[in-house]
Amino acid sequence: MDLIDSLRRARIPQFELPRFVGGINARLPQLPPTLGLTTALNLALGRILPRETLEPLSDKLVCLRVTDGGLTLHFTLTPKGFRPAVSSAKPDLMISAKARDFLALALREEDPDTLFFNRRLVMEGDTDLGLLVKNTLDAIDWPRLEPESLHPFRLLAALRLRLGPGGF
Fold this sequence. Notes:
alpha+beta; Nonspecific Lipid-transfer Protein, Chain A; single chain
């Protein structure tokens, strides 16, 4: 049994991040967590996340908001992959939920439709882009996750290979 299977079998307890955590995070620069998100997305792009399917996201401003975590992460898809975006423009697509609900989605404990209809997952903006993201996530066959593959040096090396010369 691997780590993901273990986590899937163990139900995530109901929780909400303390208000002070969201308050502190909201005052901090959002670039570091956005870089973490875009790095993870780039590692999956082309292997787990089909680049062709996500083409409609190209040059669109996407915002992922963790409501209880005080995080508002703006990013876009470019020909070189996902990149953080610094913009005061209204996002083309904003996806909002609490940290627990995003975690439950990632571990496939909850279905996006269930969260959406229970008003725990909110999508605002371009509904076609929202459906594209939801359907893409639903269709992904998540690979076995090996804990040693999460070592920061391995992640950076894999990202450097994916981005090629001059990537970062």
